[in-house]
Write a structure and sequence with these properties.
Rossmann fold, 40% helix, globular
Length: 292
């Protein structure tokens, strides 16, 4: 069994720990009404996108998400950074540059890393750290912590996560070769993350789009080789349009974050089918550290 198999299966109980961590750190994360920027790289960026959309939609205040390398020079009341390793060059550089100008909080899985030294405050999810290069549980735990801080339900999410571990993968999905993930609102970031998991772990052809944007070009690649998987509520009529292309349409009523577990499982299954090591993706390292 690979490390990623163990790590993705451990998520629901660890989500409980993440929610409990949020409950005892209420003053560490942004307050309602603050204007907030959230930053990250790779998977952490997609969790940042998801949290930003959730926070704003929940009425907690204007929230923007950026790659750590692309944050513009705007005024914010607080900045939240996500970095599993705590060593990602772009995140460390940004927090160093912002020091003393705006309050910063970092979520990381390792307490003994540079981001903890350069951020004003840190939330450490060391219980969710991973051995696999491919990030799964540390990212979802960070997002659950942020969701819990917004007052969103966690119990139903955990139950859905357990169901996602037990459910079969969509029939015929492992035999397909092209994958498109769709989101709307706060699930656009999850769609981006879903596609990244298949690219990283299985070297699969995977794309992601806002649901309404799929019709504007991307639908042209869908055919009998394709899976089109929506996370959350899809645009009206889209399912029928996708089925007419010959693609396999996948949708679920469970919490979209829980549904990400099934996508992670598909990534591992595809890696096995293709003879790829999902723990050590080609050309990737656990942390991206840039040299001068």
């Amino acid at each position: 069994m690979t490390h990623i198999d163990v790590e993705l299966a451990s998520q629901p109980p660890l989500w409980r720990k993440a929610a409990e961590l949020a409950a005892v750190n209420l003053d560490v994360l942004p307050r309602p009404g603050q204007r907030v920027a959230v930053v990250g790289c790779g998977t952490s960026l997609y969790m940042a996108q998801t949290y930003a959309a959730l926070r704003e939609a929940s009425g907690h205040g204007e929230t923007d998400a950026f790659p750590a390398s692309e944050m513009p020079a705007r005024r914010y009341d607080a900045v939240v950074a996500l970095s599993r390793s705590g060593t990602t060059t772009e995140v460390v550089d940004l927090l160093t540059r912002l020091r003393g100008t705006v309050p910063t909080t970092v979520l990381t899985a390792d307490p003994d890393t540079p981001v903890v030294d350069v951020a004003d405050r840190a939330l450490v999810l060391d219980f969710a750290d991973e051995r696999s290069v491919v990030q799964t549980r540390s990212a979802t735990c960070a997002l659950v912590l942020l969701r819990a801080h917004l007052g969103l339900d966690v119990d139903a999410l955990i139950a859905d996560g357990e169901a996602a571990l037990a459910d079969e993968l969509p029939t015929g999905s492992v035999e397909r070769t092209q994958f498109t993930f769709l989101g709307t609102g706060w699930t656009v970031g999850l769609a981006n993350e879903a596609a990244l998991k298949l690219r990283e772990a299985a070297l699969a052809w995977a794309e992601s789009y806002p649901g309404m944007e799929y019709r504007h070009g991307p639908i042209s690649v869908s055919d009998e080789r394709s899976v089109v998987w929506t996370l959350g509520t899809p645009p009206r009529g889209l399912a029928d349009e996708v089925r007419r292309t010959g693609a396999l349409w996948v949708a679920s009523d469970r919490d979209p974050l829980a549904e990400v577990i099934r996508v992670q499982r598909l990534a591992v299954a595809l890696a096995g089918r293709y003879g790829v090591d999902p723990d050590h993706p080609r050309n990737l390292a656990r942390s991206i550290i840039l040299t001068a």
